[in-house]
Each structure stands twice: as structure tokens, then as C-alpha cells.
Write a structure and sequence with these properties.
Elements lengths: L2 H28 L7 H21 L2 H4 L2 H17 L5 H56 L6 H4 L14 H24 L21 H17 L1 H7 L10 H8 L3 H28 L17 H5 L20 H14 L12 H8 L2 H18 L5 H15 L2 H13 L6 H9 L11 H6 L1 H14 L4 H17 L6 H14 L5 H27 L4 H28 L1
Helix pairs in contact: 1-2, 1-4, 2-5, 4-5, 7-8, 7-10, 8-13, 11-14, 15-16, 15-17, 16-18, 20-21, 20-22, 21-24, 23-24
Keywords: Coiled coil
Length: 571
């Protein structure tokens, strides 16, 4: 093996360094098992964090600030955030310490990148100086020997430094980091009161609402970056203008610390503007209009005798010009990123989402939100799930709606759906019915409730194919039939029908014994909907008897499934 081959192998290993270390760290964290005990988990977290810190210290800083590598580091931070739910002081301190070190390492990347660039610049200048010295020495030697020198030496080439089109790239990066942290803090407020409780989707694998996922922390960064880049002109005037583009990062950070409010003002108004553009686009799509002016029909006039004699007959029209393809706006590109995440099954992203909600989220008053959540939960606890619970919760939410606004009410509803408390789907829906269950008024919570029958139906098929533990299937069936029993009979009739159609269409893909389980589920579904329809017509409350029927029948399903599960596990 010659010297060139050795160098190539060395360079290849260096380029794979970040990839190998980060993938290993992710695998370490993905294989965490609480049942193996605290010591084993602490050891795995420690190893993973040290690998990430090594990459942040020794890896290529430019590579680590973008693309897959950055997403991988954020994945590690996301898992560590989830690890904090492991209620142990020693373990939590370890996780928090490593998470803070990784955050510092991420913040230092631009500084490291700048230092490396300056080093390379110095090395290039040094090489250039040495080359010039060597050239001067050669020229002096040639003159001393009686030569005239090279024609090139007589004419110096002047190279002008070209100013960059946008001189505030470093300030822009710092601003993006600042806004991302701001939104992460707001999302953490939502997550702090949401413990994936009674109506959780985590224990049966359904992606939760986008606001409650770690993935959305990554997605919102895409939105923030696109908005800030799209707002360069206004930010250059309001925020960047006091910074020196040639200053180091710390100096620029000091200047920008006093610019956080103007920065957030631009971001909030930007998201509100995106929301307005989005709403207008949806309106045009609904009415069938396009951006071009409506064509008017003009009646063609026939030429008379004098027109023919004077040669003024109508000339053939030129072929219409091909319409230019309209470029997508920034918000449209970001929306596609969100929808792609939903297609991958990472989040539930309602089609009624509007970017204006992000503007509201930025301004949300955390203390007020937390206190309102606690107040409603206490009202439900005092009612103790009795016959007065629905009315008490509805009145409490109605008061909250009057004292605050529509977006606040939406956030409150969603948190009650995800929080460990005595408030059920029925109580939340009762509160929403006061707002007429209109997607226009409740664009987040109404789709969140409506997606459940279909989401649970999809998960039932998936669990039967795996196969899963009987306990997990039982949870999913209980959630599924709670939605069928509780949700508005007419408002969500289409969703119930879609869930039934999906189960029927997927039945043939299962083994014969499991097809019997699906038949039983469909039969029970028909019975529940029929009982609800009868109760609606007669006015008689039969929900208690229907609940007993559901519980008893699910018990029979699980008993039958347990035998099948044992056989499938052995085969």
C-alpha cells in the first residue's frame, strides 16, 4: 500500500467519524430499558452523551450545524428530555448535566467554525507571503544576473475583495437559535402539564398531536429559519444593523441580547402574515378561483361589406403564452415539511392548522396557562366523575373562554385531553359543544377528537399483525370504543363509517383466527351505534348499559386473543 492509499483511507475514516459516533449514541439511547434498572440506564446515557460531546468537540463544526448530523444531535437531546420523566434525582441530574453540556457544545459550533476559518485564512496568507517572498528572491536573483524579469512581474494584478450579498449570516444564525429556544420554552409549558395520561396515544403507538411531540421541536426550527431568512430586509433594519459583521460571535451576541423583543415582534407578525396568506389560499381553493383574472366572454363581431373591402377582417389570434410556473412561498414549503412528517407517522397534523397559532404560542402567558389547567382539573376532581362532572367542567371552561380568547381555549382543551386527570373525552366534548364543534372555531381540538376512531382502527390492525401483548390491544380497544360511545353521533358519523370500512378492508390481511376478532369488533361497533341512535330517538339514557356491554365484550375478545397470542409467540 503506497502513501497516497494510506492518506485516502485516513480521510475516509475522518469523514465517517461523526456518522459512526452519533449513530452509536442514538442506538445506545434507543435501547434504554427501565426494567434493567437505574445503574444500567445511567451507564448507557453516560456513554451516549460522551460520544456526542466528543463529536461536538472534534468533529467538523460546519457539518454538524446542518442536515442529518444536527437532527441526530437533537434526537439525542430529545431522548434525554424524555429521560427526565424517570423519577430519580441522581438519574435526572446526570441527564440534565449532559444535556446542558451538549447544548453548550452546539452553541460553540459557530465559534469553532469561525476559528477554523480564521486558521485556514492565516495559513493561506502565510503560504501566499512565502510564495511572494520566494518570487521576489527569484526576481532579485534574475536582475542581479542581468535578466529583465518576467513580463508578468511588471504588471501587478489587483484583486478586489467582493462584499458578500448578505453580511449578517452569523447574526442571523444567532437569532434563529434564540427564537428556537424561545419556542421550545413555550412548548415545554404545554408538555409540563401533559403527562401522556388517560387519553394518551403513547402506550399504543399512535402519534400524538403535533404540539406535544419532540419531532415538532425540530420541525418548528425549519419554520423559524425559513421565516427569518424570508424577513432579512426588515431584520437587517430592526435587528442586525447595530452588529458588526466582522466581529466575533460573543460580541454579536452581546448586541443581540437587547434586540430580543424586536426580533420576536418580526417573527410573530411573520407567522401571523403566513397564517393570513394560508387562509386566503384555502379560501381560493375552496371557491375554485385562481390568481389570474377571471376570463370574460366577448361576443365576436362579424365583419361587414366595408370591412372586407378595406381589408379589416379579423386576423388570426396569436397562440396564448404559456403560463409561468408560480414559485412556492416560504410558508408553502414549510407546510410541505410538516405534512411529510405526518406521512412518516411522526405527528398528527390537522389540515385545519394555521400558522397564526405559532404567533399566539410565542406570546402565551405561561403562568396563566398553568394556573387555568390546574383550576379545571381541580373542578373535575371535586365533581369526582359523577353526573355533575360534565356540567362543572363545561362551566369552568366557558368562564376561561370568556376571560381569555379562542386560542387559549384551544390549548386548554388539548391539554385536558392529554393530561393525567379525571376529565374524560365526554367532558371535553361537552365543553367544545358550547363552541358548536366547528372546525372554523376549534381548528385543532375538533380534528383531534375526530381522528381518534380512524387512528385507533388503524392501530388495532397493526397490533394484530405484530402480534402485540394482550394488555396493549386491550388499551387500544378501550380507547376505540370510548370514542365510538362518546363522540357526537352526527358530527363524527363519517369518521365512524371510515373506521368501520378500514377494519373491514384489512380483515383479509390477518390470519383466520384473528379475522374472527375483527368480526367481533365490527359487530360490537354496530351494536353501540344502534344503541346510541335509539337513545337519541327515545331520549332514554342507556350509556351505562352500553358501557357494561363494551367492557364485557372486550373482555371476551382479550380472552380469545390471549390463547392466539401464546401460540403465535411459540411459532
Amino acid at each position: 500500500m503506497n502513501k497516497t492509499t494510506v492518506l485516502n483511507v485516513s480521510e475516509e475514516k475522518q469523514s465517517d467519524f461523526e456518522k459512526i459516533e452519533l449513530m452509536t449514541a442514538m442506538q445506545e439511547l434507543a435501547s434504554l430499558k427501565p426494567e434493567e434498572g437505574k445503574a444500567a440506564m445511567m451507564s448507557q446515557v453516560d456513554r451516549a452523551a460522551l460520544r456526542v460531546l466528543k463529536v461536538l468537540k472534534e468533529g467538523n463544526p460546519d457539518t454538524l450545524q446542518q442536515g442529518t448530523y444536527l437532527q441526530q444531535v437533537k434526537f439525542v437531546l430529545g431522548v434525554m428530555e424524555q429521560c427526565k420523566e424517570f423519577r430519580d434525582g441522581q438519574f435526572t441530574r446526570l441527564v440534565r448535566s449532559h444535556a446542558e453540556d451538549i447544548m453548550v457544545g452546539l452553541e460553540d459550533l459557530p465559534k469553532r467554525s469561525q476559528a477554523l476559518k480564521e486558521k485556514k485564512k492565516r495559513e493561506a496568507e502565510e503560504a501566499k507571503r512565502k510564495a511572494a517572498e520566494a518570487k521576489s528572491a527569484a526576481k532579485a536573483k534574475a536582475i542581479a544576473a542581468g535578466g529583465k524579469g518576467s513580463p508578468i512581474d511588471k504588471e501587478e494584478t489587483v484583486v478586489e475583495e467582493i462584499e458578500p450579498d448578505f453580511p449578517y449570516e452569523l447574526a442571523e444564525k444567532i437569532c434563529i437559535q434564540t427564537v428556537v429556544r424561545h419556542f421550545d420554552a413555550k412548548l415545554d409549558v404545554l408538555r409540563s402539564v401533559h403527562m401522556y395520561g388517560r387519553h394518551s396515544t403513547v402506550d399504543i403507538g399512535i402519534p400524538p398531536h403535533f404540539l406535544y411531540t419532540v419531532e415538532f421541536s425540530v420541525l418548528i426550527e425549519d419554520a423559524i429559519k425559513a421565516l427569518i431568512v424570508d424577513s432579512r430586509d426588515i431584520l437587517a433594519r430592526r435587528v442586525y444593523n447595530d452588529t458588526d459583521p466582522k466581529a466575533d460571535e460573543e460580541t454579536i451576541r452581546k448586541v443581540l441580547r437587547d434586540k430580543s423583543r424586536p426580533l420576536l415582534d418580526v417573527v410573530e407578525s411573520g407567522f401571523a402574515g403566513w397564517g393570513s396568506a394560508q387562509a386566503e389560499a384555502a379560501k381560493r381553493a375552496h371557491t375554485g378561483e385562481n390568481d389570474t383574472a377571471k376570463k370574460t366572454t366577448v361576443k365576436e363581431k362579424k365583419g361587414g361589406l366595408f370591412s372586407k373591402l378595406l381589408g379589416k377582417e379579423k386576423k388570426p389570434q396569436a397562440a396564448p403564452k404559456r403560463a409561468r410556473k408560480k414559485e412556492k412561498e416560504a410558508w408553502e414549503e414549510v407546510l410541505e415539511i410538516f405534512k411529510a412528517a405526518e406521512a412518516r407517522g411522526e405527528i398528527f397534523f390537522p389540515r385545519t392548522f394555521n400558522f397564526s397559532i405559532l404567533s399566539y404560542l410565542s406570546q402565551m402567558r405561561e403562568n396563566l396557562f398553568k394556573s387555568e389547567v390546574e383550576r379545571i382539573i381541580q373542578i373535575a376532581e371535586q365533581a369526582k366523575g359523577g353526573s355533575t362532572a360534565k356540567g362543572a367542567v363545561a362551566r369552568g371552561l366557558e368562564q376561561s373562554f370568556k376571560n381569555n380568547d379562542q386560542n387559549f381555549f384551544e390549548m386548554l382543551i388539548l391539554n385536558l385531553l392529554y393530561t393525567k386527570n379525571s376529565i374524560g373525552l365526554a367532558e371535553v366534548q361537552t365543553a367544545c359543544m358550547g363552541q358548536k364543534l366547528d372546525e372554523g372555531r376549534l381548528p385543532l381540538s375538533v380534528p383531534e377528537m375526530g381522528r381518534r376512531p380512524n387512528a385507533y382502527a388503524t392501530q388495532i390492525i397493526k397490533l394484530l399483525k405484530e402480534p402485540c401483548e394482550p394488555r396493549v390491544l386491550k388499551n387500544c380497544l378501550e380507547y376505540f370504543f370510548e370514542a365510538i360511545l362518546v363522540l357526537h353521533l352526527i358530527k363524527y358519523e363519517k369518521d365512524f363509517a371510515n373506521a368501520s370500512t378500514y377494519l373491514e378492508s384489512q380483515k383479509e390481511s390477518l390470519a383466520k383466527p384473528l379475522q374472527g376478532v375483527i368480526d367481533g369488533i365490527l359487530g360490537l361497533m354496530d351494536r353501540v351505534l344502534f344503541a346510541r341512535q335509539q337513545a337519541r330517538e327515545t331520549g332514554e339514557d342507556t350509556s351505562h348499559n352500553t358501557k357494561d356491554t363494551i367492557s364485557h365484550t372486550i373482555g371476551k375478545f382479550i380472552t380469545a386473543y390471549e390463547g392466539m397470542y401464546e401460540k403465535m409467540k411459540k411459532s
